[in-house]
Amino acid sequence: MRIKAIFTGISLCVSLCGTSACHKKTSTPETASPSPVPAGAFKPRELRDIKFEQTPARLERGKYLSEGLLQCFVCHSDRDWKAPGGPPLQDKKGAGHVWEDRPWLVAPNITPDEKTGAGAWTDDMFARAIREGIGHDGRILHPQMWYGSFRSLSDEDLASIIVYLRALPPVYNPLPQTNIPDERKKTLTAPPPLTEPVPQPDQSTPDKRGAYLVRIADCAGCHTAWEAPMNPGFFGGGNEIEMWNQPRVFSSNLTPDSTGISYYDDALFRQVLRTGLVKARKLSSVMPWIVFRNLNDGDMNAIFAYFRSRRPVHHVVDNAEPPTMCPMCGQKHGFGDRNRPKIDQPVRVDPKLFDAYVGEYRFDEGFTLVLSKEGNKLLIQFDGAGPKIELSAIAENKFTAKEIPDVFSFVKDNQGRVAYIINDADEIGKRIR
User: Fold this and answer.
1) Residues 48 and 180 in one domain
2) Are residues 168 and 313 in the same domain?
3) pLDDT at 44
């Protein structure tokens, strides 16, 4: 999932930029979908005749997800910016919202109002929009709708969300339709349709449970420096965020490094998400703690366990201090001058070793990474398309690049042949050629 975002994100950021909740006038590419299809060549999948049964369990789960991790009403409601965190207005919950800084972008009314909302939408129209980015009328949705992250929602969680949205009080609220500017529309791409079931995730350990929760909440979308000249690493902070007419901020480092959240424990993590305060300092309202506070202790602890399992990224970011140039991400932010380059002194590796790495590696999610060698350079490419990125060695068998947030290593089989590529989240790609 994460590797996929690296390469589609880089290519999309050059043009439209894929997006998440956070954006720097444009957006962030964590929610970009694999192998997107140009809009002009796109045909939406046929709608299915499905109806999700309403059960008490689904209503409860759907409410929990919609009003928490998925942040549905943070975007699809007007908000009270006079209150801490800018909570959604309860009498307009789900009734839609026109984006303040991009008036051409409209989050539609998703209450079951027949005239101005989603009352006439079928369950599969909802499902296709949430996970595949296709509107009820067949349009490709602007990726501010996080279908790239929601794509990971299990079938049961998806059903629960739709059941709950159906149960909202209908709100009459006429709104214009999103009208994406032509220059952006030209580069708008469609994700491939979902044609296979999405099972419940592995939740056998807290960090595995947390991985699913972090993915559908799109935490990496804001807390990874997708648009910076250099990418410190996943959850390493430094993503410049400017939205909802709130003061510009840089996202914080969530990795278990001394510059991140190494001093946190479960209790402090829960406290921050519930109060929006860190050491008496208020979090920016662009951080949706106002809905994350609705999470139960178990899920908060699982999310924290996942962050603690990540590779530490040494990247100091502070929004209260005067900005200085950061050699880690190439931007100016508070305490930037306390950082050092991501690849300060690359490890010297014999280029002859690269011959053993060249090949194509397929991951369980269906995407591939292609490794090639040009001269003394080792290059990596997603699905054989998009940019080829030169990798630098940071250890004898660990490689990264300034443009990407991940670290890769290679694993040999019993015959001594490189058989797998593995990233720092323990996702494994099997060599197929």
Assistant:
1) yes
2) no
3) 81
